[in-house]
């Protein structure tokens, strides 16, 4: 019988190995940028075309390579970082396996231009599918320039499974940001399709963070630092009010290497405690400096997963560092009564005592406060409810024409009309559905009666009497449902009402939001947004007619963020994802006072919906408290 096991050809073996290292264009970007960092570059330029599918080019001013090194860097398992097995446990550089460039050259057309400092002539090397096509001496500046063209040109099945340009661009941008954050001492630039997207001057970490994420982060950053033997934690965390519904702005670096480690993320979330809103994620850029012998980075081809020899101690130190940073900046979490103060360092003990004193002082100040708007509102509400028990005959108001004698809800409404004059914010729900003016629409008797029997409770719920008992409506959820169905129709018809802004608003978006905006720009215009790019900013000239003036930029940015969140977690169609995101951002919020006319219109539009009982994401809108349930409250056993 003939032997059946044989060695694979070198080119085929490289293509198979490339599947582990080069999964998409962003994988090649990561390896090439890290090689430039290892080369000691002070400036690195990233240039891509067609989201990396056509061209990925990295230019640096590093040490360059000799003609022999240039040839050897494309051989598998050829590296300058490891000479003995012990070196695996003392690694501080990025690349060390010697697989990246060999894998990239196996599935692309690669051109390398490199020259060492002090030399007049450099090297040109052209490789196509692991085969060297050209090698010659050329004049080229000091450093290296590597161009990767037509990625996966010889593996069409792999190329077919690449995602859209927007998705691949987003992954490239993420890798670029990770390397740039890890190396604030290096100047970076990013150019896509001949347009410069970002230029990051070298400087301190805080300056790099603000350059990437925007100037508004300057007020949100909290310095975080902790040092114990063999372990140092430094970086920045974000204030709770800067948290977002989407992941993506959480960065861990171990010895300057970006990693993904859910256990450490849990430590940070635990440190924030209940300061964060539900389902929100804080911003953080945290660097962990640790003895290389205590961490194993050789566990994954992309080296984003590592192992620690004592992760529980690291968890405790990280959690303590974040808590301490929050405490110093007066945004401490609730006191942790399970904490053993004796186990804290002297500095941590001092911070803990200060937090306790601050909370006691704040509590005393709140007790001594003689007046607050909230307290005034509560007092007025108490007076109104007390009027429920007054004798109607003793007042000058004629109730008989409006109120059944035994209808306590009607009395509650009438009592509420005697409140002091209140300021009502303008809301979109009081706008007519059709083009007739409200004056031309004859009022219906049942609508007038309903407005007098519908109460707004705690500026959150609408309470109304129905035949079977009492109906409760969540006003924010109701408005979300109304807007969702409205936006679905507008997106299908590609026509939404827009109102021009008297003063156009300009805003700066980060690169990730710009990519999202490019993806859904047509749909946003269909909803009624009017915008245009200008000098690196977005000029907002018009908004959907339902939105309130003064909230344009925040809603526009929030819409992009919420869209990314829904897209990542729900996998819905684009129109539905956008409609959900827009409805959630544009809906009136709990705590908004509504006039009786606004309440009427909200209820009218809600019951005109196809499904008034639930929001688009399944949250309940309406609840009925039946008569028998009400009776049970007053039935004695």
Task: Show the helix and strand layout.
Layout: H1 10-21, H2 25-38, E1 43-49, E2 55-60, H3 67-72, H4 100-106, E3 109-115, E4 122-128, E5 131-138, E6 143-149, H5 156-160, H6 165-182, E7 187-192, E8 195-200, H7 205-213, E9 221-228, E10 231-238, E11 250-254, E12 257-259, H8 262-272, E13 284-290, E14 295-296, E15 307-308, H9 311-328, H10 346-368, H11 373-386, H12 408-416, H13 445-453, E16 454-457, E17 461-466, E18 469-474, H14 475-493, E19 498-507, H15 511-527, E20 530-534, E21 537-544, H16 552-570, H17 574-586, H18 596-607, E22 622-626, H19 627-634
Parallel strand pairs: 1-7, 11-13
Antiparallel strand pairs: 1-2, 2-6, 3-4, 3-6, 4-5, 7-8, 9-10, 10-13, 11-12, 14-15, 16-17, 17-18, 18-22, 19-21, 20-21
Helix pairs in contact: 1-4, 2-6, 6-7, 6-15, 8-9, 9-10, 13-18, 14-17, 14-18, 16-17
Description of the molecule:
It is a single chain. The chain contains 19 helices and 22 strands. It starts with 9 loop residues before the first helix and ends with a helix. It folds into 4 domains: 10-203, Heat Shock Protein 90; 207-364, 2-Layer Sandwich (Ribosomal Protein S5, domain 2); 391-421, no CATH class; 423-637, Ribosomal Protein S8, Chain: A, domain 1. With 637 residues, the protein is an alpha+beta fold. Helix 9 (311-328) packs across helix 10 (346-368), helix 14 (475-493) packs across helix 17 and helix 14 (475-493) packs across helix 18. It is elongated. Residues 334-344, 362-383 and 385-448 have low confidence and may be disordered. The chain has an 8-stranded mixed sheet with strand order 5-4-3-6-2-1-7-8. Helix content is 38%, strand content 21%.
């Amino acid at each position: 019988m003939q032997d059946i096991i044989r060695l694979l050809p070198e080119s085929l073996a490289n293509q198979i190995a490339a599947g582990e290292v080069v999964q998409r264009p962003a994988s090649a970007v990561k390896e090439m940028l890290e090689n430039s960092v290892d080369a000691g570059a002070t400036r690195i330029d990233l240039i891509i075309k067609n989201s990396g599918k056509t061209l990925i080019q990295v230019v640096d001013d590093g040490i360059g390579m000799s003609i022999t090194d240039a040839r050897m860097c494309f051989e598998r398992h050829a590296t300058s970082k490891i000479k003995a097995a012990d070196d695996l446990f003392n690694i501080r550089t990025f690349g060390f396996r010697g697989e990246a460039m060999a894998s990239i050259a196996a599935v692309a057309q690669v051109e390398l231009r490199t020259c060492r400092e002090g030399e007049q002539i450099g090297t040109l090397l052209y490789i196509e599918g692991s085969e060297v096509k050209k090698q010659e001496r050329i004049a080229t500046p000091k450093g290296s320039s590597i161009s990767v063209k037509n990625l996966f040109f010889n593996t069409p099945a792999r190329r077919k499974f690449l995602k859209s340009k927007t998705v691949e661009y987003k992954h490239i941008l993420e890798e670029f940001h990770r390397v740039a954050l890890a190396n604030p001492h290096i100047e970076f630039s990013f150019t896509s399709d001949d347009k410069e997207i970002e230029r990051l001057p070298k400087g301190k970490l805080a300056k790099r963070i603000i350059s990437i994420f925007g100037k508004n982060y300057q007020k949100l950053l909290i310095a975080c630092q902790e040092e114990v033997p063999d372990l140092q934690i430094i970086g920045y965390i974000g204030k709770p009010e800067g948290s977002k519904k989407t992941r993506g702005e959480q960065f861990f670096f171990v010895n300057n290497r970006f990693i993904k480690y859910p256990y450490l993320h849990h430590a940070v979330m635990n440190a924030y405690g209940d300061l964060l809103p539900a389902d929100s994620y804080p911003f953080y850029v945290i660097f962990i400096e640790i003895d290389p012998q205590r961490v194993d980075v050789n566990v994954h081809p992309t080296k984003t997963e590592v192992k620690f020899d004592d992760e529980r101690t690291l968890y405790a130190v990280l959690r303590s560092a974040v808590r301490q940073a929050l405490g110093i900046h007066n945004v401490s979490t609730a006191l942790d009564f399970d904490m053993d103060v004796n186990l804290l360092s002297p500095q941590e003990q001092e911070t803990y005592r200060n937090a306790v004193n601050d909370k006691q002082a704040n509590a005393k100040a709140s007790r001594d406060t003689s007046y607050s708007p909230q307290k005034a509102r509560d007092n007025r509400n108490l007076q109104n409810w007390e009027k429920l028990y007054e004798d109607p005959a003793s007042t000058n108001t004629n109730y008989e024409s409006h109120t059944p004698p035994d209808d306590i809800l009607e009395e509650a409404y009438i009592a509420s009309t005697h409140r002091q004059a209140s300021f009502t914010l303008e809301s979109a729900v009081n706008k007519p559905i059709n083009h007739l003016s409200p004056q031309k629409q004859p009022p219906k008797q049942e609508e007038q009666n309903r407005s007098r029997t519908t109460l707004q409770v705690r500026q959150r719920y609408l309470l109304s009497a129905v035949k079977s008992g009492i109906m409760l409506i969540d006003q924010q959820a109701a408005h979300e449902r109304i807007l969702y169905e409205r936006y679905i129709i507008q997106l299908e018809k590609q026509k939404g009402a827009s109102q021009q802004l008297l003063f156009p608003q300009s805003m700066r978006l980060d690169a990730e939001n710009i990519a999202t905006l490019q993806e859904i720009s047509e749909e946003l215009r269909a909803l009624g947004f009017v915008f245009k790019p200008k000098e690196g900013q977005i000029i907002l000239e018009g908004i959907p007619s339902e939105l309130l003036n003064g909230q344009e930029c925040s809603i526009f940015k929030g819409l992009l963020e919420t869209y990314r969140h829904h897209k990542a977690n729900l996998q819905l169609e684009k129109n539905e994802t956008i409609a959900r995101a827009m409805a959630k951002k544009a809906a009136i919020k709990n705590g908004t006072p509504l006039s009786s006319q606004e309440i009427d219109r909200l209820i009218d539009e809600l019951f005109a919906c196809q499904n008034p009982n639930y929001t688009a994401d399944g949250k309940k809108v309406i609840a009925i408290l039946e008569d028998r349930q009400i009776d049970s409250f007053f039935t004695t056993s």
